Amino acid sequence: MLTGLLMYINTLLVWTQSRKLLSFTLIALMTLPISGLRGQSTINFTKSKLIIESNLKNYEFNVDVALSPSQQSRGLMFRLKLDSNAGMLFFHKREKVASMWMNNTYIPLDMLFINSSGIIVHIFYGATPHSKDIISYNYPVRAVLELAAGVVNTHGIKVGDKVKNALFNNAD
């Protein structure tokens, strides 16, 4: 893919007499997402079932689990869709102040900050795709769960609800 792009640029150099036109064309090409370069390396995630107990109702999600630093750095970057019953669980070895961002993330997200007991202690609604703003909670948490934006409101999930998963040692 990259070789083809370089050949195309080289052709433009030969055909283009005007430097302004060439500069404009190169800038325009650099701003387009190139599917072959997006997510340049593959990172594998473990899949896990997760349940949120809310309002006497259980909501089941199939999540990717990010445990390693490389998994947590990648997160949901470069993904173009996220089903309403899917998400990503960033699980830390110990509680810490977790900081998230949306760089290279194409999907608006809700972020649920979860303590060691599996209790949701903070929710950030509707994180903006590609934002470099830091999203955090000022107190240590054990995990952050990212869901598609709107899922939290649709299900009435709230602070105080319980997340059940084997990582919290509370799965049925």
Topology:
Layout: H1 2-15, H2 19-31, E1 46-54, E2 57-66, H3 69-74, E3 86-96, E4 99-100, E5 109-114, E6 120-127, E7 135-136, E8 141-148, H4 151-155, E9 162-164
Parallel strand pairs: 2-3
Antiparallel strand pairs: 1-2, 1-9, 3-8, 4-7, 5-6, 5-8
Distinctive features:
single chain, 172 residues, alpha+beta, Jelly Rolls, seven-stranded mixed beta sheet, globular, disordered N terminus
3D structure, described in words:
It is a single chain. This protein has helices at residues 2-15, 19-31, 69-74, 151-155, and strands at 46-54, 57-66, 86-96, 99-100, 109-114, 120-127, 135-136, 141-148, 162-164. It has 2 domains: 2-31; 46-168, Protein of unknown function DUF192 (Jelly Rolls). α3 (69-74) links the parallel β2 (57-66) and β3. It has a 7-stranded mixed β-sheet with strand order 6-5-8-3-2-1-9. A two-stranded antiparallel sheet has the order 4-7. It is globular and about 40 Å long. Residues 1-8 and 10-37 have low confidence and may be disordered. Helices cover 22% and strands 34% of the residues. It is of the alpha+beta class. The chain is built from 4 helices and 9 strands.
